[in-house]
């Protein structure tokens, strides 16, 4: 169906202008200045409606979803063409358009009635009844052609709104833009009873009190240990960079983990919080062994070795780097000789660097060749013979220190059974003097008495067992030399 040019004669009774004749393929009606018939009013859309001639008949299109358009008092559906006839009246906002055919032209007389908007008469039940023409609705072919024609005009006018299944198909009785912006006034709103607010406040108060007690039960740590309560460092040399002063945010921060906070703080002259490589590879850090929040008299470091047995036992099914860790030394105190062979791994170079110069010199005088047996024997005996006091009930030399006879009852052949029972007299449980608590049972082995976790820490276990004597004297040197001659024999 070909589009044709039509003639529209517009007489504006609302404004004092002469009639205007427009020759166009379709008359656009709206508030936009680009429309052929401009109706300047807030209730009129930019492109509100359009009139197009097809097959000798004029059809009107309603494009407004908000304000609506009426034909002879009947609200038109959106984008559904309606046939116009002589004497028809179209209302757009407060404007009334009276239509008459004059030969091949369509005369449009525009009048303004500001007291009457679309839907007012319908809302009051005063809708005028007009006779509907039998051929008022367009055929499907004509409707499709008109839809294609007006689609281009809508794009040019910037009006691309389309109908959707969610939009109501029947027009509202309250027409105009006001139906989208209407809000009820105070006299139409039923106020809430005051009792609702009172009971609401009571309910919120009860829930708040319950939440406080519930939170305290769920998270209520005891005070931190005494070393972390102090505002000044009391150890000399210090084992931390600064005193904690009972501060929570020193350890618990949003920018770093507690593990990194502990490690960074305990990097001082007398202590470096660096764990051994096997523990570092297994992901074991500070907080895995050191507990807190057990009261001011509790010292986490004194009870750290209790956690050794938590992992190193046969019932632990957890794997570290793909390997499980069982009960060490078959549950004994760990004498490192099995079937006449040394099973001890020995001390690393970093661990020996932490020892005193006298102990390192004594190790240099001990036979220390490339064989593991003599190397491990040298390290083991130097650690036990150099300035180590005995506990009551053990054989000692004239200075009260350990000697070869302390552990061995005979030397030809060398007695290797007695040391297994002797180890338990020193490497057993311990009572922490500051906390006055038993950190480990007296019948259980003290793991960290042999196995050092913080290699670069200068505070060693059992300092009370070290003899406060000058460096190795000539007599002591002779005693060490005799020990060397005894234990340097092949196993």
Write the layout of secondary structure elements.
Blueprint: E1 6-12, E2 20-24, E3 27-30, E4 37-38, E5 49-54, E6 57-62, E7 70-71, E8 74-75, E9 82-83, E10 89-92, E11 95-102, E12 105-112, H1 120-123, H2 140-157, H3 178-181, H4 194-218, H5 226-229, H6 258-265, H7 277-281, H8 286-289, H9 308-311, E13 319-320, E14 323-324, E15 337-338, E16 341-342, H10 349-353, H11 357-365, H12 372-385, H13 404-407, H14 418-426, E17 431-432, E18 437-438, H15 474-487
Parallel strand pairs: 1-12, 3-4
Antiparallel strand pairs: 1-2, 3-5, 5-6, 6-9, 7-8, 7-10, 10-11, 11-12, 13-14, 15-16, 17-18
Summed over residues and divided by their number, the pLDDT gives a mean of 78
Q: Could you estimate the helical fraction of the residues in percent?
A: 25-40%
Rg (CA only): 50 Å
Unreliable stretches covering 5 or more consecutive residues: 123-130, 468-491
**What is the count of DSSP helices, taking H or I runs of 4+ residues?**
15
Number of strands: 18
> In one word, what is the shape?
rod-shaped
Which structural category do the helix and sheet elements fall into?
A: alpha+beta
Beginning-to-end CA distance, first to last residue? 116 Å
Please, could you describe this protein's structure?
- The chain is α+β, with helices and mostly antiparallel strands and 491 residues long.
- It is built from 15 helices and 18 strands.
- The strands form 5 sheets. Strands 2-1-12-11-10-7-8 form a 7-stranded mixed beta sheet, with no helix packed on it.
- Strand 10 and strand 11 form a beta hairpin.
- The radius of gyration is 50 Å and the shape is rod-shaped.
- It starts with 5 loop residues before the first strand and ends with a helix.
- The C terminus is likely disordered.
